[in-house]
Amino acid sequence: MRAIWKGAIAFGLVNVPVKVYSATEDHDISLHQVHNADGGRIRYQRRCEVCGEVVDYSDIEKAYEDDGRTVILTKDELKAIPAENSHEIEVVQFVPSEQLDPIMFEKSYYLEPDSKSPKAYMLLRRALEDTERVAVVQFALRDKTRLGALRIRDDVLMLQALLWADEVREAAFPALDTSIRISAQEREMSAALVESMASDFEPEQFTDDYQAQLRQLIEAKLEKGDALDTEETFGAEAEGGKGEVIDLMEALKRSLDKKRGGGAAAREPDEEEPAEEEAPEPAKRSGRSTGGGRSSGSRSSAAKKDAGDSEAETAKSGTTKRATAGARSKAAGPSKTSTASKAGTASKTGTASKSGTASKTGTAAKSGAAAKTGTATKSTAKTARKGA
C-alpha cells in the first residue's frame, strides 16, 4: 500500500504522527469505451466553449456560478484556505460506538505510526480499548474538511470519514404513515423465519457474482473471439419468479417449510400430473358395450352428468331403486364410451387412437365409431325407460 497523506493525531497535548492509507479498494473490472464500428478508443477532450480550443489540465481552474455571475478560484487561492493546509487529525470528543449511525460512515483509512517510537500510538489505542469508546475527530483531506471516527480494528487505528449531518437526507414516505394491522400470528411466523435464518456474519462467504461472470465472459471472448455462445459460457439461464402476488401468511409458511427442510412436503401437486389410477368397481355390469368397448373406470365429469340425466329420467317414470340401478348399468358403459369418444381424451393407459380417442383397454376408436356409440347410448336409454 502507498500512503496517501501524512499528519498527526492531536490527542490533548499528545501528538501521534501517522501515515494514512486507504483501507478499502474497488475490485470492479475496469472497462473503457470504444467505437463499435472499428473498436477505436473513445477519449474525452477538455474543450473551451468560448474559443473552441482543447485546454490542457494545467490551464484549468475551478469556478462557482451564481445568478449568472462566475467567480474563478485559482489553485493558489484554494491552497491558501487555512483548513486545507492543516495536517492534523484533531480529537474533539469520545463517544459510545452505538451512537454513530452507520449511514454516516463514508471512506475508511488505516493509520500507521510515523515515528521512531510508536509509544504515543500504542497509548491512544490502549485508551480507546480501556474506555470502549470511539474518538470523534476533524481533519482536512483532498480539498475538504471532514468529520471522522477513530476506532480500533485488528490492533490498528482506523479513521473512518463521516458525513456531515446536513449530508444525510431525511426519509419521508407517506406510505409509512398509513395504519396497517399486523396479526400476532404473522409476527410469530416472521420471527420464526428470522430465527431459522440466524447465523454469524462471515463476509468471506459472499462473492460479487456480476464481476465473476464478467471476468468469465472476458476470458471466453479472449479464447473464442466474437463468435461466442453466452449460454455455453454461463450455462442455461435459471427460471425467474412468476411475479405472483401471494398471501403474506402463505409466503411465511413456505419460507419456513423451505428452511426447515420441508419444502418437498409443502410443494403443491402439479395440475398437469395425472391422477392415480383407480381400481375398477367390483359390481357386475349387465349392459352390452358398443363402439370402442366399456370404459367403466373413467371418472370424467361428463360421464357423471350422463349417468345423472339417466337417473333423473328413470325417477320421473316412477321406477323403483332396483330399476334405476339396472338402467344405470345398461347406460353406463355406452354413455361413458360415447363421452370419452366425443371429448377425444386419452385413457390412463396412454394409448391414443388416430382421432385422439382411446379406451382403458387400449382399443382405438375412430370418429365413425364414436357416432355409432352415441346412437347406441340414446337407444339404450330408451330401452331402460321402457323396461322400467
How would the blueprint of this fold be written?
Elements: E1 5-11, E2 14-22, E3 62-66, E4 69-73, H1 75-79, H2 82-85, E5 88-95, E6 105-113, H3 119-131, E7 134-140, E8 145-153, E9 156-162, H4 184-196, H5 209-224, H6 230-234, H7 248-259, H8 263-266, H9 301-316, H10 321-343, H11 367-387
Parallel strand pairs: 1-5
Antiparallel strand pairs: 1-2, 2-6, 3-4, 5-7, 6-9, 7-8, 8-9
Structure commentary:
This protein has eleven helices and nine strands. It has helices spanning 75-79, 82-85, 119-131, 184-196, 209-224, 230-234, 248-259, 263-266, 301-316, 321-343, 367-387, and strands spanning 5-11, 14-22, 62-66, 69-73, 88-95, 105-113, 134-140, 145-153, 156-162. The chain starts with a strand and ends with a helix.
Q: Radius of gyration in whole Å, from Cα?
A: 41 Å
Biggest beta sheet attributes: 7 strands, mixed, barrel
Number of discrete helical segments = 11
Q: Give the N-to-C terminal Cα separation.
A: 103 Å
Overall pLDDT? 72
In the sheet with the most strands, the strands line up as 1-2-6-9-8-7-5
| Residue runs with pLDDT of under 50 for 5 or more positions | 238-243, 263-308, 310-384
